Automatic annotation (TrEMBL):
Keyword Transferase among UniProt keywords: yes
Domain of life, per lineage: Bacteria
Domain N-acetyltransferase: from-to ranges: 8-165
Upper classification of the organism: Bacteria, Bacillati, Actinomycetota, Actinomycetes, Micrococcales
Coiled coil: none
Protein name, UniProt field: GNAT family N-acetyltransferase
Species of provenance: Microbacterium mcarthurae
PANTHER family with a match to the protein in the record: DIAMINE N-ACETYLTRANSFERASE, GH14572P-RELATED
Pfam families (UniProt xref): Acetyltransf_1
Keywords: Acyltransferase, Transferase
CDD domains for the chain: NAT_SF (cd04301)
Length: 165
C-alpha cells in the first residue's frame, strides 16, 4: 500500500472494491462515448479479480473513506519474441474530480514496478486516437506509439461465424 499526498492510498484491489471499480469502468465507457457497452457486474468483477482462478488484477486508489477514486485493471500477456510475460493495461481511469492529483502517474508507476519485480519487459495498452489528453499524458511518461500496429477484434455474430469455420 502506498500513501499518496492527499490521504488516499494506492493498493491492490480487494473484495468490497467491486462496486467502486465498476463505477470507474462505467465512467470510462461514458467518456469513451460507449455508455451502453458495459455488461459487467459486481459479481462478474468479483469472480474475475478474486475468484478461484483470477485472470484479471487491479490496483485502486482509494480515499480515506474507502471510495475508489481511480483504477488500473490489468492482466498478463506473453511475448513469443521475448519468451516472457508482460502486463496489459486494460483500463486506467481516474474520476474527473480527482484528476491532477498524481493518481494516473502513481497507477502506471505501480504497474511498471510490478513488471520489474516480476522480470517482465513490457507494459502495454491502447488509447483511442482522439483522446489527446491521454495521449499527451502517456507521451510525457515515455510511452511510445506503436504506429505500425492496429488492433483487431472479433465479436458477436462474426465471432460465432468464425468459430464455426
Amino acid at each position: 500500500m502506498t500513501a499518496l499526498t492527499d490521504g488516499a492510498v494506492l493498493r491492490p484491489a480487494r473484495p468490497g472494491d467491486e462496486a467502486g471499480i465498476l463505477a470507474c469502468i462505467q465512467a470510462l465507457a461514458d467518456y469513451e462515448r460507449e455508455p451502453d457497452a458495459v455488461d459487467n457486474t459486481v459479481e462478474m468483477l468479483s469472480a474475475a479479480l478474486f475468484g478461484e482462478d483470477p485472470r484479471a488484477f487491479a490496483f485502486v486508489v482509494a480515499g480515506e473513506d474507502g471510495e475508489v477514486r481511480a483504477i488500473a485493471i490489468w492482466f498478463l500477456t506473453y511475448s513469443t519474441w521475448t519468451g516472457k510475460h508482460g502486463i496489459w493495461l486494460e483500463d486506467l481511469y481516474v474520476h474527473e474530480r480527482y484528476r491532477s492529483n498524481g493518481y494516473g502517474v502513481a497507477l502506471l508507476s505501480a504497474l511498471a514496478a510490478e513488471c520489474l519485480t516480476r522480470g517482465y519487459p513490457r507494459l502495454e495498452w491502447t488509447v483511442l486516437d482522439w483522446n489527446e489528453p491521454a495521449i499527451g499524458f502517456y507521451r510525457a511518461l515515455g510511452a511510445e506509439a506503436m504506429e505500425e500496429w492496429t488492433t483487431r477484434r472479433v465479436t458477436g455474430a462474426a465471432l460465432e461465424a468464425l468459430a464455426q469455420r
